[in-house]
Amino acid sequence: MAEIERARQLRADDTWAEKLMWRWLRDRRFSGYKFRRQHPVGIYYLDFFCKEAELNIELDGRQHGFPDQQKHDGEREKFLQSNGIKTLRFWNSHLRRDAQSIRDTIFNELQTRAPHPLPDYTRPITSGPEKKS
């Protein structure tokens, strides 16, 4: 039960970057993939987790540039990898400057790890079967 309370607290304290990312990912808005916020795995809470693709998306603020935090992030990464979970990390500042690149990276990784068929409207238009004489 403590896990749930901690996850709720983390969700209530979202940063501006987490709020933006959640607008993209919530309610299967991102190509039909289901994401969870602050999902507990072991002793860690994953910012945005897609179970289907075993993909974790982390948004890092400036505190992740300090050596102690980098060491912690490395240990966390090893744990997640040992459980088959891949992590994509993005700096908050990068999210502000190049949102489309981040969306493309996430989409490509999702398609690699758990492909969904692309909707018809994304496919090239064909004129139909050609007739042979």
CATH topology: Endonuclease, Chain A
Task: Kindly provide the radius of gyration, computed on alpha-carbon positions and rounded to a whole number of angstroms.
Answer: 18 Å
Order of helices and strands: HHEEEHEHH
Q: Which class of secondary structure composition applies to the elements?
A: alpha+beta
Percent of sequence in beta strands: 15-25%
| Overall strand count | 4
Outline type: globular
Q: What's the architecture in CATH terms?
A: 3-Layer(aba) Sandwich
Segments where pLDDT lies below 50 for 5+ residues? none
Total tally of structural domains: 1
Average residue pLDDT? 84
Q: Largest sheet at a glance?
A: 4 strands, mixed
Helix content: 40-55%
Q: What is the name of the CATH class?
A: Alpha Beta
Structure, explained:
This protein has helices at 2-12, 16-25, 67-82, 92-97, 99-113; strands at 36-41, 44-50, 55-60, 86-91. The relative contact order is 0.14. 44% of the residues lie in helices and 19% in strands. The chain is built from five helices and four strands; from the N terminus they run ααβββαβαα. The chain has a four-stranded mixed β-sheet with strand order 1-2-3-4, with helices on both faces. It has a single domain, classed as VSR Endonuclease (Endonuclease, Chain A, 3-Layer(aba) Sandwich), CATH 3.40.960. It is an alpha+beta fold. The termini are far apart. It is globular. A hairpin with a 2-residue loop joins strand 1 and strand 2 (44-50).
